[in-house]
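Deviation from plan, reported transparently: uridine-diphosphate-N-acetylglucosamine complex.
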Amino acid sequence: MEYLEIEGGNPLCGEVRIQGSKNAALPILSAVILHRGTTILRNCPKIIDVLYMLEILKGFGCLVSWEGEALVIDASSLKDCRVAECYGRQMRSSIMLLGSLLGRMREAFVSYPGGCVIGARPIDIHLEALEKLGAAFLEEPCGLRAVCEKPAGIALRLPFPSVGATENVILLAAAAEGTTVLENAAREPEIGELCRFLNSMGAKIRGTGTNRLVIDGVKEFHDTEFTIMPDRIVAGTYMLMTAAAGGDVLLREVPLEQLGSVRDVLEQMGIKQEAGEGMLRIQSKGHPKSIPKLMTRPYPGFPTDLQSPLLAALSLAKGTSIIEETIFEARFKIVEELCRMGAEIRVEGQTAEIRGVKGLRGAELTARELRGGAALVLAAAAAEGISRIYQYHYIARGYENIIRDLQSLGSVVKST
Ligand code: UD1
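Because the crystal trials were delayed, the predicted structure below was used instead.
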């Protein structure tokens, strides 16, 4: 069985360049099909979720090729509007194809989305919002059929700033007739990146970065070349890993302006940070200070995607920390694994109480989802002895090459 083996307990030392952003790349890949022509993307991370998305696009009729580091997608002629079930079921982001398929083809079929098992993850907000733009849905046993003969702009307000629903509305509204005003939109930086990408191919979207987006639909898009921003969650993972394991690490191509809440937390943990142009140096002696209370929040709050890495890092803190998860209801799945490494964590409902311990010990661990898996890597790097992490494929959904990155920080790590 595949596993990742890490010999932990040594301070991390070296440099890592942060990869392109997963959560920006996926909606951008969905947006590509709005245009009957060619798009060139740079810095697109080569992660499993992106590779699945490319297979889905090929199924629609897109021609996809890598020319060196550039990803070239020709969506001139699409022949199908069905998301291939084998890929659609694997990843939640396939739901994001609803907006762009309806915008381009006026119809779509997606299987009920899969993805990381971190909660119920319903799609009611997506569907209600798309209905307001003119879509109609028919539930079938293995998926959702959608039609939208005449997408039309409208004023609408999301009941909760869902990232995916905001993206779906943007994708359909960009190709709709008239103007859409979207209130209570999510403000995650990846949404700003999607808007910048769409504008670079001729869309008219204003209000980027705010919770009120104004989208004037356009009839045609044009070819574009776009560089995807670096991944703030990957950067945050390595920041927290250094905080826990100790060491002196230089991160390059870091989206510093998007990491305010994470940098505040590291500050509270007593970790030394030195920021330069797109660079961040982290110095830690290990055993950071505890955090009295932290809640995950929509951006610009502390991201739920870094909750598990933070939990793992705080298990080695001096003192007791409290984390409340407010976005996903099933995101404490790694607690059991961390406790087998010697962590002392108690979970009650959506709150975890973490009593810092003097050391973690290597263990046989199983990743059950992407960010939880990355948190186990973090814990293994900080623990004494050897850890094996099974189901490594979950981690590869979002981290381009965590083995290479850890090796460049001096960690002894290999995979089978
Ligand atoms: C995206 C990110 C994910 C991140 C999350 C929150 C991508 C590919 N994934 O996921 O990494 O953790 O944002 O920052 O960008 N909800 C509903 N009904 C809906 C939609 C959402 O109840 O129709 C709930 C979800 O179950 C969840 C919460 O809203 O509890 C947040 O979900 P959402 O913001 O939509 O996250 P995703 O787009 O799935």
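The chain is about 30% helix and 25% strand. We consider this an acceptable substitute for the interim report.
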